């Protein structure tokens, strides 16, 4: 949008001091305007240009501009200032051209003129340096996020609506108020740039697999956001969000809640040993659904709580279109969870894991893949190698350090190994698949994971790093 500037001195340039002097005269509406401008500048959502005539002491009095969304254009030109009172209360003139109404010819010449003015190559107008003013605006009025600005806009619009004498002005303000309320309640992607291309691709692949699948994504590549984006895309079609998220620990319950709130998912029920009121909250959701109310909900539950009868009795009453997300999806094939899988009625399923294959449990891996109707290389895969190549993860190196088991740890390890040897199938050169074998293998693995010598090795590695880099 072209904004004019005036000056009686052709050598005059705006400086930050002029802006600071102006800012002292602003009322709360004016301050809010500059807070919004500061947010737009800081988030790189707006570019500003100020022009003046190259010769003489005249002023630039343009009231015109072009809005362009990448496909269509709207051109406006007229006498009125682009303000609410100018557009709604004054007696003004405004000419609007729409590129999709067979008016594209109206843009050709104007685009050339506009681009010359915008880029400072016009024969009759020049750009006024504005970087200092932009910096002053951000320093003076920056700091508020979009949610805070919307709260302020809602309050100020209500104030103006109560004072408005013009019917059309009040109606316009009421429309603004409703738009703000609707936006603040609506789920949306948490970052202005929108989902990354691979996150869009993951959703499309999931749709192509009948809304089932495993996202085999390296740690740090955004499994959580990718899956919540699927819930968001389903919301856009159904106008309500419905998801049950199963996680291994109570810590992850809290982390998933934070991520869900970034998407502006508000109706969240947390189910774990630390949750006190989850039953009444989930019962309320189920009751609304039974009355035909279009209810939205995000239920975050630990695997342990998922198995309990109190949860299952309510879980079974949730509609089939609810999206089931299983974080660390390899856990879903553990014996206790696997026993419940045949009765799971939710048809939209996402399994998340950096390592989908269950170690020492081929049968469990097969059951997991069957539940998600997926097999290697899975509905969507994002390897660590690709993540490093694309700059999503940083390059790093492994430096293995061997640690010996203590005598007692080694004794227990060998005892379990002798027990496992009884299940060895010599003809097929492998262990007989059974729940007992799986439990023994997991018990033996925990000895290695919790080896006492690891702590001393870690302290030594850390000490070497500190010594090498300096304190």
Commentary on this structure:
The chain has about 475 residues and is α/β, with parallel strands linked by helices. The chain is built from 19 helices and 15 strands. Helix 11 links the parallel strand 9 and strand 10 (about 295-300).
Helix tally equals: 19
**Structural class by helix and strand composition:** alpha/beta
Share in β-strands: 5-15%
Question: Would you count the extended β strands for me?
Answer: 15
Helix content: 40-55%
Through-space gap between termini:
54 Å
The pLDDT mean sits at 87
The main pleated sheet reads as:
7 strands, parallel
**Alpha-carbon Rg, integer:** 31 Å
Given the C-alpha coordinates, what overall shape results?
A: elongated
- In spatial order, strands of the major sheet run 9-10-8-11-12-7-13
Low-pLDDT windows of residues:
1-12
Note the main attributes of this structure:
471 residues, 4-stranded antiparallel beta sheet, disordered N terminus, elongated, 14% strand
In summary, what is this structure?
The protein is α/β, with parallel strands linked by helices. α6 runs antiparallel to α7 (167-185) and α8 (197-208) crosses α9.
Task: Note the topology.
Elements: E1 2-3, H1 16-23, H2 28-42, E2 51-53, E3 63-68, E4 73-78, H3 84-88, E5 94-98, H4 105-119, E6 125-127, H5 131-141, H6 146-163, H7 167-185, H8 197-208, E7 212-217, H9 223-238, E8 242-247, H10 250-262, E9 268-271, H11 278-290, E10 297-302, H12 303-306, H13 309-315, E11 323-326, H14 335-338, E12 348-353, H15 362-371, E13 380-382, H16 384-389, H17 407-421, E14 424-425, E15 430-431, H18 435-449, H19 453-469
Parallel strand pairs: 7-12, 7-13, 8-10, 8-11, 9-10, 11-12
Antiparallel strand pairs: 1-3, 2-6, 3-4, 4-5, 14-15
